[in-house]
């Protein structure tokens, strides 16, 4: 049984808290911290059985009983807090992205290595039942050599413009998961990126300096080609599909729905829309990544989403932004 | 190359004419007869390249050049014309049902045997790509021993009441195909029938002495159980599905549609309705049964839907009617 | 917050314990009883945070702090324990079937009514997301008047013969859920039952006096017709589907699978098999029926599966057995 | 009724001959020509009822009774024969591609315009039921503004290397249809192309100077983005799918199969593979494009695949080849 501290009590910090409480047998939450400790937060912590609520994450880092921390604070604090946590000898689960700056990520990874602590990045989709099924087909050899990896990733609605302005852009905020998925499913590294993107959903997104629609082509080290299509707004819901095509076959997944019901009437044969958004679609994967993290700490195993897995998607996102800006394919070797 | 005469120029006679002209390389139509020879019929025959149009089918039977006839006239004439055709030495394709009277069917079969001519009954659904696929799975042994055979057969709309009154009832007019399908897919004979039926679609059908909705359970000689569900009106279109479940697996078919298009919008994920009715759904099977019939004549092979295949569904229909009337399961041995 | 006692610590008692602990905010388990209190049970109770483990359920009934009990003991004790619990003023969740004897069920219902306690029967499938989706379509009026209700219910493998001998027979053990489903989906009562059944899976089942395969036709009070097909062994897994067809449309559900992955290779296009068995398929429904039960206790609402819902399927099962034995349709009015 | 001459009696010339004979009521074939007139060809023409077989296409062009010609000869002769045919006042159905040289295509279009004859290019997939269903959704406004157009186009097996060497390369031989499909489904023109391609199927294809796998991104004049993924070898068969995603919804199609049968066994739930190759998948579309062509001649309507529809895909193919060679996106304005 390990003791965990959670840094950041926003939406994702609470999702992880619930997962640990309900599904993770080997861990208990000793403390949660947030820069704003409200009565609501205290009440929530009480119902969750979390004994300590701090307004300073350093109290968590200083607690010798706490074995591991979850860094769920705002993105710009992921790197410095992770560094402090490593220096304090805590195992680290860090939300994505680790940072938008490559040098800072490398610094985190260096400190983690020095401290010899576990470090897992929050690419929860690797734990999704559908994407895992694709991965299993690839690993088993049933696909043969992968030739094409396709990811469709479309949100049900664009975020508020105020969020768009501070999000770091679509590639860092949304596509970062898809970049990870291309690496995960292909088992190879991205070496070149080309983006065709535009503002088709909402002109305000363009005014905020971002795009909302893109097709991203990725050349991989093993010769395979990846392609992602993104939209900030699919009116029918959260569209999350993937396909790997190779020399021996192909495997693809469809969206999850709330039921398998099919209604036939004079207007057509109607199935349910996809589950609405990431909390509905990926809830189980949030639990499973936590089970995996605790298992790697308790049983001293490597984490399934390691430091390099945190670094590479950021490199790809930087290359993607550069490709969009310059209208040409960008080699990752230009970035590093 | 054989020469064919078509007796009856109604809808089904014309369907077969078009099939022979377009798809059957080994046959040409020398004559068509109908009790009402209109100008429209003559024009149609001309465009089809049919050289002779008669108002008396006997002219077809008397033509020594004609090898085979298609009996597409009204149901009550199927048996007598088939008998005459057999006596004239013509091979016979006879539309279903051969007759509603068991003795008359037996007389037909007896004459056919005496004459040594081919005799095929128009159970075209055996030639449907979907039902053939089920049959292939059964025959190949992939299902193992069949345990359950399910047929869903629902029309898109009830026929006119005037037709209902002369149709012989739902079992003879509509379910007769499903009785054949149960025999075909199971590879076994029906020994007992039980019907739960009612008038749920249109009270006028009840007033005409018929039902419009039924679940029919059939005990088979090999121990398997068949079940048919019928409705005269499925608002979403012609619903034609089947399933065979056995010791090693199950196989089922879905409806055919005009396209595989799936439309996702804020109201749901919408596929096409089934093809509208039997001409749309089964067009290719009408051609394929004709190719099969001509092949059995030209190459002296057994027909794939023989005399007994014409008799058994009529026995089952009689038992089904009796079961509905008496509210109890009826053994076919009670009928014969 | 209510306190709950669980009577019977077998598989289903533990399933409910886990559901309450993880998913039911308004309840906590104060005690569990079992006629055999092993060290393993004590350990398990400790990890679940259940403070008391008794070898006599009366200790639970005597505890004034306990508001509600779950009767998860062996089937023959459901009725007497429920009666005692009612007399002790406890709200009752009773596993199915309440009893195989109609009079004893009526006695339970009478005591429950006298005591004014809540009584819910464990027909968990009503809480399954797929069957609920069908029910929602029916209730919303999208199906119109129901005409046909079909339930396919096939187990992945036959139970051990020793179990078959004491199970009360397939209708009481397995089909009882399907009888409930026909009532639930149709919103009507069964008035007549006809069974075509046989021993096709395993002759030992026949020697034990039971059957393993059946098609069951049910006439409903509203004129609709229900049909169930059962098998004790579907080699491809747990097959649980249903369809309601009516005047305005039809709704059907497919099986749940572990993922939506489709693998295309030179041997075909392959999807996953259904989830293996009832614990995999219906896990969430077990939690949801518990949430519903606690809600009805806490907020004094009617339970969603009431006493009559416990009685009717037993009447139908008795009629089904009689139909099988006598080879004729049986009216429920013959039973009562 | 018009009279048609067919120039070129290879596979596609014969496909069109059969379509006209079977399905096109308004046309009859008066002559067919081929540079090699064999006994087999004469026999075939006789069974088809084609009265004249020439070894020189000029005999067709000189026949004043012939209204229209089908140019089905080798690719390099499409342009010169089309020019001669236009000058002879014949309506023209020309197989794709019109030519690999832009100037020659423009010359053809100029002569066609001068002569005032109909000119239709053989992009038969526009007449496919699935792609037409997508197009119908787009045209009806159900998709809203198109944002993403995806085409998956994978052959079941690579052509012989000898064919690869003379094919003009994958873009001209195979992807040309997909370029047309992007234009057709989007209703917009391609303005820029980027290709990520490689040799992953067979190194011999690389030695022959071609590629066998590609992801092609296309920027469209209306702001939408197109993406095509190609492979020369999908072991599961001919993979032909498309999707249009827009502001109001998305529509996608699946592959056609020989039946809807689904086989469930202990190894999985298995559907049929896609129809094998283009003759199986697109047979009806070959007939329908012919019906459309004859209709446009007989009723003096514009053809549905006009001269510009012949030109644009060639421009895109040239740009695609240049993008592959130079590793950068190519604007079509660089080509023209």
Layout of secondary structure:
The structure is a homotetramer of 336-residue chains.
Chain A: E1 2-7, H1 11-23, E2 27-33, H2 39-48, E3 52-54, H3 57-62, E4 68-71, H4 75-87, E5 91-94, H5 102-115, E6 119-121, H6 129-140, E7 146-154, H7 161-166, H8 170-186, E8 190-198, H9 203-207, E9 213-220, E10 225-231, E11 239-246, E12 250-253, E13 262-265, E14 268-271, H10 278-298, H11 307-326, E15 330-331
Parallel strand pairs in A: 1-2, 1-4, 2-3, 4-5, 5-6, 7-10
Antiparallel strand pairs in A: 7-11, 8-9, 8-15, 9-10, 11-12, 13-14
Helix pairs in contact in A: 1-10, 4-5, 5-11, 6-8, 8-11
Task: Provide structural commentary.
The structure is a homotetramer of 336-residue chains. By secondary structure, the first copy, chain A, is α/β, with parallel strands linked by helices. Chain A folds into two domains: 2-117, Rossmann fold (3-Layer(aba) Sandwich), CATH 3.40.50; 126-276 and 313-334, Dihydrodipicolinate Reductase, domain 2. Helices cover 41% and strands 24% of the residues of chain A. The first copy, chain A, has eleven helices and 15 strands. The first copy, chain A, has helices at residues 11-23, 39-48, 57-62, 75-87, 102-115, 129-140, 161-166, 170-186, 203-207, 278-298, 307-326; strands at residues 2-7, 27-33, 52-54, 68-71, 91-94, 119-121, 146-154, 190-198, 213-220, 225-231, 239-246, 250-253, 262-265, 268-271, 330-331. In chain A, the strands form three sheets. In chain A, strands 12-11-7-10-9-8-15 form a seven-stranded mixed beta sheet, with helices on one face. In chain A, strands 3-2-1-4-5-6 form a six-stranded parallel beta sheet, sandwiched between helices. In chain A, strands 13-14 form a two-stranded antiparallel sheet. In chain A, a hairpin with a 2-residue loop joins strand 13 and strand 14 (268-271). The radius of gyration of chain A is 20 Å and the shape is globular. Chain A starts with a strand and ends in a 5-residue tail after the last strand. At the A-D interface, strand 7, strand 8, strand 9 and strand 10 of A face strand 7, strand 8, strand 9 and strand 10 of D. Strand 14 (268-271) of chain C pairs antiparallel with strand 14 of chain D.
């Amino acid at each position: 049984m390990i003791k965990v501290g959670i840094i950041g009590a926003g939406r994702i910090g609470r999702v992880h808290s619930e997962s640990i409480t309900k599904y993770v047998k080997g861990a208990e939450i000793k403390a949660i911290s947030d820069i704003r400790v409200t009565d609501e937060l205290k009440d929530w912590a009480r119902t969750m059985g979390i004994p300590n609520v701090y307004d300073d994450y350093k109290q968590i880092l200083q607690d010798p009983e706490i074995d591991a921390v979850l860094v769920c604070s705002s993105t710009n604090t992921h790197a410095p807090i992770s560094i402090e946590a490593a220096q304090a000898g805590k195992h680290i689960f860090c939300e994505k992205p680790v940072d938008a700056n490559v040098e800072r990520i490398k610094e985190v990874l260096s400190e983690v290595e020095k401290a010899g602590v576990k470090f897992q990045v929050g690419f929860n989709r690797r734990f999704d039942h559908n994407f895992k099924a694709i991965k299993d087909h690839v690993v088993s050899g049933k696909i043969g050599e992968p030739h094409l990896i396709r990811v469709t990733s479309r949100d049900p609605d664009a975020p508020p413009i105020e969020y768009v302005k501070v999000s770091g852009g679509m590639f860092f905020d949304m596509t970062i998961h898809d970049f990870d998925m291309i690496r995960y499913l292909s088992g190879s590294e991205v070496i070149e990126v080309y983006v065709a993107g535009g503002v088709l959903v909402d002109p305000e997104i363009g005014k905020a300096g971002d795009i909302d629609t893109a097709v991203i082509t990725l050349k991989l080290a093993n010769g395979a080609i990846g392609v992602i299509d993104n939209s900030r707004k699919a009116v029918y819901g959260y569209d999350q599909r993937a396909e790997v095509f190779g020399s021996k076959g192909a495997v693809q997944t469809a969206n999850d729905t709330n039921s398998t019901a099919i209604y036939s009437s004079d207007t057509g044969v109607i199935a349910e829309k996809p589950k609405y958004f990431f909390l509905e679609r990926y809830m189980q994967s949030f639990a499973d990544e936590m089970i995996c993290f605790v298992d790697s700490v308790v049983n001293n195993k490597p984490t399934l989403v390691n430091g390099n897995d945190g670094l590479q998607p950021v490199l790809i996102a930087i290359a993607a932004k550069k490709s969009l800006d310059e209208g040409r394919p960008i080699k990752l070797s230009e970035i590093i």
